[in-house]
Amino acid sequence: MDTKILTETVSKLIAKPKGILAIDESISTCDARFEKLGIPTTIEKRQEYRELLVTTPEIEKYVSGFITFDETIKQSTKNGTPFHQVLKEKGILVGIKVDQGLKDFPDSPIEKMTIGLEGLTERLKEYKNLGASFAKWREAITIGDGLPTEACLITNAQSLAKYAKLCQEENIVPMVEPEVLIDGKHSIEQCLEITAYNLDILFTELKKENVFIPGTILKTSMVLAGKDHFPQSQVGEVAEQTLKCLKEHVPLDIGGIVFLSGGQDDETSVLHLNAMHQTGELPWPLTFSYGRAIQNDTLVSFAKNPEDVTTAQTLLLKNAEKCSLASVGQYK
Q1: Which end of the chain has less Cβ packing within 10 Å, N or C?
Q2: Of 177, 205, 321, 322, which one is the catalytic site residue?
């Protein structure tokens, strides 16, 4: 482990006023979104859409890193230039999702556990040769009657910690993503309690594995009520409760914190981030790592007219700029 390489990579990823664009949808997830909009679910169409994303002019003004998927990091433009080379030439760092999805947690089938540790070191070496300098591993936490269970939280945190350690041994920055799902009727108070408890467990396990915290990025969901709760959380309330949780339960030496949009609508995810940055100086770098919240308009445009690349890329740039402004509290 070279801590200098890790901290330098983190610094580039969270440099103001930039954030990270997630284009790491699995084949099944990408195809499901395509199908809903009438886009053919073929490898050629996935390549065409992703080429549109990575070649967007001036996206590097607002985005410091792209999180890719196994298929994506190995793809090239129509003229044969590898995607990772296109991004490198723009000064954008390449990230890679390395978990292999979710499976039912034993004795608690509503809960999920993340898999993918088997063969991870070999995959990390392969991705590093393809230009990856950071990685991502996601866990999914459900709030419900008696959920989440402590056993599930600990198991997922242990996997996140082992993944993070393996990444750092290859000088790849680990992004740890303990997502608390927005599904359900839970209140913002319940979300705060669960998120805080899980962060405590996660950082306990990271320390047990001797993970280098300044060379780690936390990708977290915001503290907000479930989507079926009434009333919904207000922007100021989400900002206040999320910052309270992070300040009390995340180490001050964390490399950086980025948010996932996590099912929020596009505008709301931007407003929440903006509100947090308007509260004053924060103890750690805090920015975005959105996928759908930046891509949605572009995907709809692509579905309507895949030949009109300029319009689709303009929409991507516009939404990335919104997030960039919010990451320094200047979105209006």
Answers
A1: C
A2: 177
Taking a C-beta distance cutoff of 8 angstroms, is the pair 313, 298 a contact? Answer: yes
Cα separation, 270 vs 304, in Å, equals 25
Residue 332 in domain:
no
The tally of domains found in the chain comes to 1
Q: 24-31: long-range contacts at Cβ-Cβ below 8 A with a sequence spacing of 24 or more?
A: 24/67, 24/68, 24/69, 24/72, 24/95, 24/96, 24/97, 24/136, 24/291, 25/69, 25/291, 26/69, 26/97, 26/101, 27/69, 27/71, 30/69
Q: Which of 18, 90, 162, 219 is catalytic?
A: 219
Strand duo 108-114 + 102-105: pairing: antiparallel
Q: Which of 26, 66, 18 is nearest to 46 (CA)?
A: 26
Report the CATH number at residue 246: 3.20.20.70
Question: pLDDT digits over 267-317, tens only?
Answer: 999 999 999 999 999 999 999 999 999 999 999 999 999 999 999 999 999
φ, ψ for residue 179, nearest 5 deg: -80, 125
Which residues on neighbouring strands pair with residue 132, listed in sequence order?
Answer: 94
Q: Is 177 a catalytic residue?
A: yes
Joined together, the tokens standing for residue 87 give: 């991004």
Rounded to two decimals, the pTM is 0.96
- Segment 8-37 shows an average pLDDT of 97
Of the candidates 83, 66, 65, the residue with the CA atom closest to the CA atom of residue 74? 83
What would the mean pLDDT of 81-101 be, rounded to a whole number?
A: 98
Which pairs from 118-123 meet CB under 8 Å and 24+ separation?
Answer: 120/163, 120/166, 121/166, 121/169, 121/170, 123/98
Contact 321, 274 (CB under 8 A): no
- Count CB atoms within 10 A of the CB of residue 306: 15
CA distances, 139 to each of 72, 146, 156, 198, 299 (Å): 21, 18, 6, 11, 26
Residue 129 lies in a domain: yes
Average confidence (pLDDT) over 174-200? 97
Q: Is residue 210 part of a domain?
A: yes
Residue 331 is assigned to a structural domain of this protein: no
Q: Which domain holds residue 222?
A: 3-326
Paired residues of 258 in beta bridges? 219, 287
